[in-house]
């Protein structure tokens, strides 16, 4: 399989020197904005509060990552000065912009914001969270597939890495615990859909674990074989490298999930709350938050990174590459052919 120059360089920028992804997520909306509103007793979180939190996360955690995912409305301006020059940069083209219907959620770009704008400000990748489940309304499904294709096309036109995230969710009329009770079935069914899982135009998948979020079985315990079978089943459908997200798991549960994911062939992580949530719990005491980031979050990142270095499969060793990553175009006619190749 061949890869375009921009995407090849972008994947190298996002990974460490050995091709493993150690990526920090700090693009979250609800998990950051809602606690700020609750603790401040306000209806709208102040930009200064959100900016202070995201800036501090970047300052203490970005130096220990291979890449950082930020949101355009708050995260970029707040964090960009604290992200080291060698660290890769991922920006979302959607950000809390979905429409809720009885038959499912419809994703969309932030107005006036797309892959071209993301490329202009120097990012190495575009991230999209595509809300998806197998039983969505046909009209919602058509919308989601059309939106997905539009982002693929824009990333190809701008020769930038496309990182595709899938998340399952409850319908408005369902009990909130429907996802908790049916997580494995819902995740596996969503990732078995042949249209939404078409790998053309996708470079990396960002996936939630196909098991419950908390109380994860010991990877070396009596339940490990059954859990590993579920991860292996999920991975068998993936035709591109993939990383695991934390989905609100605590630190130790996330480490256990990573072991299962790495055994199934994952190439790293793109996670946030498992790393920084306990420090953020200290808000609005920014001094206490800073201390937790330094004394707990950073050491935890070292543990996650060590596990990643030891067990994760480099992205360029994923079976889809068939043992070789070839740039297209290459050779003496590169300058003539590059524009046509896209």
Automatic annotation (TrEMBL):
Q: Which family is this sequence assigned to? A: Belongs to the aldolase LacD family.
Task: Answer yes or no on keyword Lyase.
Answer: yes
The identity of this protein, by name, is: Tagatose 1,6-diphosphate aldolase
Does the entry feature the keyword Lyase, yes or no? yes
Enumerate the UniProt keywords alphabetically.
Lyase
- List the InterPro entries hit by this protein, alphabetically: Aldolase_TIM, DeoC/FbaB/LacD_aldolase, LacD_aldolase
What's one Pfam family here? DeoC
Question: Which PANTHER family does the UniProt entry name for this protein?
Answer: SULFOFRUCTOSEPHOSPHATE ALDOLASE (PTHR39340:SF1)
């Amino acid at each position: 399989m061949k890869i375009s120059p921009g995407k090849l360089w972008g994947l190298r920028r996002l990974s460490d020197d050995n091709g493993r992804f150690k990526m920090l997520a700090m693009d979250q909306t609800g998990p950051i904005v809602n606690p700020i509103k609750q603790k401040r007793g306000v209806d709208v979180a102040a930009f200064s509060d959100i900016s202070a939190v995201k800036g501090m996360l970047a300052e203490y955690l970005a130096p220990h990552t291979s890449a950082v995912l930020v949101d355009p409305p708050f995260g970029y301006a707040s964090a960009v000065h604290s992200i080291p020059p060698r660290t890769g940069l991922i920006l979302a083209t959607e950000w809390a912009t979905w429409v809720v219907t009885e038959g499912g959620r419809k994703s969309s770009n932030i107005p006036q914001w797309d892959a071209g704008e993301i490329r202009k400000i120097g990012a190495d990748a575009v991230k999209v969270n595509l809300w998806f489940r197998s039983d969505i309304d046909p009209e919602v499904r058509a919308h989601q597939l059309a939106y997905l294709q539009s982002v693929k096309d824009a990333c190809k036109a701008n020769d930038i890495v496309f990182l595709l995230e899938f998340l399952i969710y409850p319908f408005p009329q369902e009990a909130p615990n429907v996802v908790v009770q049916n997580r494995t079935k819902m995740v596996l069914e969503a990732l078995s859909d042949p249209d939404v899982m078409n790998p053309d135009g996708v470079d990396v998948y960002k996936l939630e674990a196909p098991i419950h979020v908390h109380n994860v079985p010991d990877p070396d315990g009596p339940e490990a074989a059954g859990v590993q079978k579920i991860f292996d089943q999920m991975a068998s459908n993936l035709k591109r490298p993939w990383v695991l997200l934390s989905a609100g798991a605590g630190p130790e549960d996330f480490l256990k999930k990573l072991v299962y994911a790495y055994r199934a062939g994952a190439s790293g992580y793109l996670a946030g709350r498992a790393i920084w949530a306990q420090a953020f719990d200290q808000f609005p005491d920014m001094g206490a938050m800073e201390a937790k980031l330094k004394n707990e979050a950073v050491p935890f990142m070292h543990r996650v990174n060590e596990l990643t270095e030891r067990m994760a499969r480099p992205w360029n060793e994923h079976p889809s590459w068939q043992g070789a990553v070839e740039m297209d175009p290459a050779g003496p006619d590169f300058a003539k052919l590059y524009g046509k190749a896209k």
